[in-house]
User: Fold these one by one.
Assistant:
Number 1:
Amino acid sequence: MKGLLMCVCQGTCPSFQKMNIFEILNTLRREGVVEFVALHPQLCADDGDIFLSILSKANEDIEKLYVAGCDPKMQAKMFRDAFEKAGFDRTKHIGIDIRNMDTEQALQTIKRALESS
Ligand code: SF4
């Protein structure tokens, strides 16, 4: 099972202002390229850790968990503890950098990442 989370710095960061996040999530849902999608305002906050832990613990079937948002290296650092706590294999997390893109650019970048990993 593949899932995609979008994380957008509370919706206030200029990096995510040019894109329509719901259009992106809806397109990916409609096309069925992943089994589930979700939006979280701030995955690197404490409640984001809880969300990631619960999601990854409850879903042993997750083969890949894509997170479209900020820099993938930053994501890996910020989510490490939550995944460890949940016993979730960190290599299943694939970060996708969509900062400063418009809707179409973000969609194509996400689709390329889904196809190549
Ligand atoms: S995980 Fe990245 S995109 Fe999400 S709120 Fe934190 S810095 Fe922003």
Number 2:
Amino acid sequence: MSGDQLRQEFEQSGFVVVGDFLAEDEIAHALADAEAAADALGEDPHRPDRDFWGVHSRRLSGEALDRPGLNAIVRKPELHRIAQRLLCEDCVYDGIGMQVYLPHRGHKQSWHTDTDPDDLPFSCLTMVIYVQDQTPATGMTRLVPGSHRTPIEKRFPDHADLPGQFAAELPAGSLCAFQSTTWHSATENRSDRPRFALVARFCRPEYQRDRVPQYYGRMRHARGARRSGRPMFDHPTDEGSYPWPETYDPAELPFL
Ligand SMILES: O=C(O)CCC(=O)C(=O)O
């Protein structure tokens, strides 16, 4: 796909898939590092907030990911180049994290967006890089094409299949890049091995974390508006997390 086609697809659907982003040896090194990082995980911490939002995974960042095979992916010039094509020439790298979906624990992620549409034009680019074949058994990223233009404003079943969804059943080495307001989720890992989703983020220079910290950690979930680390309120406020007071009728989802 040419740069223009990629950008056009990204603007229309809210996401694009890039095949063969990683070579065989890059996949093997990164997978070995991801497995070592997962082996070093301790017991599940008590996280009632993540349970409430339906985010059942272990998230790694910082030192836990400082491993040569993972660093090599982040430093790949092609990663930055794709972000430049999709966002803008002077886009800025905003770090990586890795979601680990452990087997036999019901690990999966509810439908959500990575930023709050009230904060537009702020938006960031999320790039999920796959080091394993993505199958219905391992779990897969799901996205709703075109949903980046429609804010989540009511409750709906956190983990349900949605009409028109795209399930990223992709070979290892693929990448999925999406706008932060695109509705997405991860299906349950029903296999016997951990599933890894390496997530790199980029943003426009004017929206770097240290310039506009108030925009970060604000997400929309199927259950409500989530402000990371903020208490729950009974009624919507700008400061707190809150559940949606109403529920969508499944035939009236706003992106339909
Ligand atoms: O695990 C995945 O496939 C997607 C990860 C994700 O959506 C996220 O971390 O926000």
Number 3:
Amino acid sequence: MTDMSMMLGPVALRSPLIAASGTVGSVVDFARVGALEAYGAAVAKSVSGTPWPGNPAPRLANAGAGMLNAIGIENPGVAAWVDEIGPLLESLPVPVWGSAVGKTVGEFVDVAGQLAATEVEAVEINLSCPNLAGESIWALDAGATAAVVKAVRSAIDKPIGAKLSPNAQDIVGIAGAAVESGADWLVLTNTISAAAIDIETRKPLLTRTTGGLSGPALKPIALRCVLQVRDAFPTIPIVGCGGVRSGSDVVEYLLAGASAVAIGTAHFERPRVGRMVMKQLRAYCSRNGVDRLQDLIGGMQPW
Ligand SMILES: Cc1cc2nc3c(=O)[nH]c(=O)nc-3n(C[C@H](O)[C@H](O)[C@H](O)COP(=O)(O)O)c2cc1C
């Protein structure tokens, strides 16, 4: 039987699968429909310092090879999350990671601090949210990324992951800023900016016109980010994220250099997809004589 455990920096994972933030609610709700035993960790929906109302509907749309969303990180704020979800974390059959967002560095620090004081195993810093300037996101700028990661790093003792954006022109530069500022791992990636139009109404499918594209169309882009970052920083642990819905998708990310792989959009179609992915992964390993899954990390053979 293949050993499916992985090390992600300081965190030991029983499985390489992570349930991606925003696609499994608070994790508590997902426990009723998902197959949490298949995952090494599950990331709760991002929370901010004060409640964020989110964007008006329609904020989800089918975009052919993927899904468009512009939820706007609707969330009840960290205090409500800590009160309502915090006490339930221990009862879940999977380690939970919190996810912090903020419009200022101080808001990130406040949220991460409050999350870290609960039973969460780690805190993901979602740098793909807008900063106070409104139109830009943190993860497009190395200085802004470094400021957030550094401040959170010095404020909490729990492991932190920095979740980056495929919209970044220089993903290696942004990754470098996060690593040097103390991130324990990088999550590559969040959604990519995209749009679609209803030709009958001639309106965009989303009220905000543009949103984030996730699902199969994102996979080759996120995989490219993993390859580039792994090449530049061979020792930084990476969570590959984008379009994973099968065991072979996981193998691809591992070969590219990821140590774990997050599943998002696939949960909407198939909440127990994690169970199927692990089955396919085991079949691949037994077909290929892989005793330890970690032996696949970075195993891509160049031409
Ligand atoms: C409806 C929806 C909501 C999301 N909300 C969040 C969020 O709150 N925080 C976050 O870090 N990522 C969020 N994401 C991004 C996912 O965690 C993931 O990075 C992205 O969807 C790519 O993975 P996938 O192709 O497997 O879905 C959201 C994605 C979707 C589709």
